[in-house]
Fold each of these.
Amino acid sequence: MAEPMSTISDTAVTEGGARAAAVSALVAAATRLFATHGPDGVSLRAVASEAGVNYGLIHQYVGSKDDLIRLVCRSVSERTAAQVSAEVDLDATVDRMFGTGRTDYVTMLTWTLLQGRDPVELLGRSPALTAVTDRLDPSLDDAATRVAAMTAMALGWQVFGPFIAAGVGIADEDRAQVDHELRRLARGLLGDDPADASEIVMDGGTFSSRS
């Protein structure tokens, strides 16, 4: 006698849910460990142990370490894209990009690039940055350049902020004000603040103030 269709469906859903939960745990564990030690300093067995996932499943569900790195990049970017699309304005997007400090993902990404992996193969076209670009004024013919500049500013400040601040003589007590001003400039790049955006134009591939 054939097994009831509902039982087969329930089993498939249960197995699919278990796989999704395992992959999510692996992504989270890999992000933490890669941020701490760099991808080259972490074994897949260590990632599986940190995630509480059977080691054999990491090969079945994900593949190699480079596959896992790409999965982390893709997962974070897709999750961020969904959040950006749901945000009420670009202020929130800029705040998300700058964050409140260096995230595990940004640290992991820094390690990954410094250890020689191809940045194009890691992610290719970013869902997150595409979502930001899609929210800009469609009349801007340099939208991709503006998003690239804002992202470079945000990630650079996350990674090198203390070093840069010290280098230009910004005191610790002034960091919060500088952070605020950087975010204002970033919003101007995205055209979120008309007053700021009107002062920023592209001139031969470089930014300059409109006189």
Amino acid sequence: MARRAADVFEKTKGTSDEAAASLLLARTLVMNGRLSDAYKLVDRVTAVATETHNRELELSAALMTARIGARSGGPEGTNEALRRLDRVIADAFTSGFEAIMLEARLAKGEIEMGSAEPTAGRAYLEALQKDAARDGFQLIAQKASAALRAGNNRSSNRVGN
């Protein structure tokens, strides 16, 4: 029985590690505008996460799916992405995955900054920056700060034109 459990663990660990690497690749694909390729990867990761009952991986895949949807679906895609992120945030909080919760909040703030309501995104990112710094998630705090600066640059470019 223990041997079987060890075999399952080894198989699952490798599969989960590969899936996590696929999410990183998907993020790179999104940044390069290859949304269809990214979505295919995330779809496979979601299947692995479901098969292995890896809740952390499921939440990470849902987060990436929201990022892809926000980039590819116009206003409707953006609204669906924000709803998906709200679910990820709530589920990650309930499950104790604080880093995923903060990453999802970052994604939500970034998406809102690029939407018709950038003021809400700005307030959201400012709160996230403080929360992340307070809780020791300095990289997320820095990313929130960078998103705020980028949003300010976009606003000043619009005002000047």
